[in-house]
Design a protein that fits this description.
CATH architecture of the largest domain: Alpha-Beta Barrel
Structural class: alpha+beta
Number of domains: 2
Strand content: 15-25%
Order of helices and strands: HEEEEEEEEHHHHHHEEH
CATH class of the largest domain: Alpha Beta
Strand order of the largest sheet: 1-6-7-5
CATH superfamily of the largest domain: MutM-like, N-terminal
Length: 289
């Protein structure tokens, strides 16, 4: 799933590509992905792009006075083409969900939004204000924003009874962190994913806060200048524990372990994070004694 660093890079790359250009035609290929109908997507046509930004994991393309907002879900992505097919796309079983063709004098270039796999989570909105999108409106603070201080972070954890892994992934607490980078942050902070967030001491909160900034900041910098088509591969190459079950921890050499749930999994290093203890591989597990 694209998370904060990848969506940030997407926003920067698209902002550079779309500056000074306008929308020619918009084709909705996967009707289920379109979540709004007023204004219609046709209202984007003929309007100039006014900038691209990120809200958590949401991508926001400003078009005139409107906003084309997208959440890429688990397997969505954006690809750029200097020469799109001349024939309008038809709904089918392929991954293409949305095509935005630029207007003159750039007619032929544009972007396509795709979604692989059978589970469809891609969401596209055309709104007058991004806050009209419920997922955007409920976002917590952005961990890369200047106002995200240690004091702010500590306040978010006060009285929190959930496990820290789930808190980091909760978009209403922090915007943009998902399964992969929460694993990376907890590994960098040397913290068990099952620690109760509200029980963390001041030193632990400080360590976790620092890890958030370092892990996300480094991921954004690694992606800087990377082509759109290579961003996914770049993300995987930079991960130290997530998706690396059975491999050696790059810090201590211990074997990276996994806890699987019904629809996701987490990876961690026992030596670095749980005092050498192995977490039971089941939902709501506790440290094995």
């Amino acid at each position: 799933m694209p998370e904060l660093p990848e969506v940030e890079s997407l926003a920067r790359l698209l902002d550079e590509r779309l500056a000074g250009r306008s929308v020619g035609r918009v084709y909705v290929v996967a009707v289920h992905a379109l979540k709004t109908y007023d204004p219609p997507v046709s209202a984007l046509e003929g309007r100039a792009f006014g900038g691209v930004r990120r809200h958590g994991k949401f991508l926001d393309l400003r078009v005139g006075e409107l906003h084309l907002v997208m959440h890429l879900g688990r397997a969505g992505w954006v690809r750029w083409s200097d020469k799109l097919a001349a024939v309008p796309p038809r709904p089918g079983k392929g991954p293409l969900a949305l095509r935005v063709r630029l207007g003159e004098p750039d007619d032929g270039a544009g972007l396509e939004v795709t979604e692989a796999g059978s589970q469809k989570h891609l969401a596209v909105y055309v709104v007058r204000d991004p806050q009209e999108v419920a997922g955007v409106a409920r976002l917590g603070p952005d961990p890369l924003a200047e106002g995200f201080t240690l004091e702010v972070f500590g306040g978010l954890l006060e009285g929190e009874r959930r496990q820290i892994k789930g808190v980091l992934r909760d978009q209403s607490v922090l915007a943009g962190i998902g399964n992969a980078y929460s694993d990376e942050i907890l590994h960098a902070a040397r913290m068990s994913p099952f620690r109760l967030a509200g029980t963390l001491g001041a030193d632990e909160v400080g360590r976790l806060y620092e890890a958030i900034g370092v892990v996300l900041g480094e991921a954004v910098e690694r992606a800087r200048g990377t082509a759109l088509k290579d961003l996914k591969a770049e993300k995987k190459s930079g991960l130290r524990v997530h998706g690396r079950k059975g491999e050696a921890c790059p810090v201590c050499g211990d074997t990276i372990r996994e806890v699987s749930f019904s629809d996701s999994s987490l990876q961690y290093c026992p030596t670095c994070q749980t005092g050498g203890k192995v977490l039971a591989d089941r939902r709501l597990s506790r440290l094995l004694k």
